[in-house]
Amino acid sequence: xxxxxxxxxxxxYGMCFGVRDALAAxxxxxxxxxxxxxxxxxxxxxxxxxxxxxxxxxxxxxAAGATTADVIVTAHGAADRDRKRWKDAGYRVTDTTCPLxxxxxxALSRLVLEGYTPIVIGKxxxxxxxxxxxxxxxxxxxxxxxxxxxxxxxxxxxxxxxxTQPIERVEDLLEKIRQRHPTAEVVFKDTxxxxxxxxxxxxxxxxxxxxxxxVVGGHNSNNSLQLVEKARRRGCRAERVTRSTEIREDWLSGxxxxxxxxxxxxxxxxxEGVLRHLESLGGKRMASFQRTREPVKSLL
Length: 300
Ligand code: SF4
Fold this sequence. Notes:
Elements: E1 5-9, H1 17-30, E2 35-38, H2 45-53, E3 57-59, E4 70-73, H3 80-88, E5 92-95, H4 99-113, E6 117-121, H5 127-134, E7 140-142, H6 145-149, E8 156-161, H7 167-180, E9 185-188, H8 194-209, E10 212-216, H9 222-233, E11 237-241, E12 257-262, H10 268-280, E13 283-285, H11 296-299
Helix pairs in contact: 8-9
Bound molecules: iron/sulfur cluster.
């Protein structure tokens, strides 16, 4: 049977080194002792089920306590005051904060020390953003034009970004902050992580040839949702699935090339399951985009 469509995998896709290392550290602890993860380790249902099967339970970072002696701070990080609170209460804390989230914390605290009014370009209430602003309650969080409009004047603004925001959106909002307060000094520390930039850029390549893009990722994974939104902005039809069984055949109708990518918390086996399912529906894999390994040292 002739293939009905081609399947093209993005050059960069799927689980980043930060999530991979956080998952490995959590599995190591959970396989030895009962442990409570202080939130969702990553925003991916498949990964959460895997940890649940190991006996790891989920709690809340802001809770007063946990039922296990071991607690785990997630890859999204936490405010120093929360980390300290758990340690002071006698819990054994395993900290799986991604080094690139930590870098954003350091950048923000330096800006505050230098006297800048802190701004985080990111989603209000997202766990990473709450961790960033937790130690700096005066920080402003912006992700929309009205939020930029509402910024009170300051002579000096120091800006960082949530690590998983698309860099174009961050640069656009930065420009709007400058326009809103043209006499203010606005310093920006680019804290969008390289794996996010790589996946966004690889999506641009994908959208040049694919009519339909499938993003494999958790329903509340910010970077997976950003991939879907970006593909749609570029004129591609796009949908997100957590696993292959969620794929609807009618999504594929009329597509000669189906692009596949995945968020930074998606397991390789989830992507492989989606690829195999697409093959069973008449797709044939193309080999033009090869995945390159991320040189971890160059990201730090
Ligand atoms: S998405 Fe970026 S910041 Fe978040 S865990 Fe992965 S590498 Fe770290």
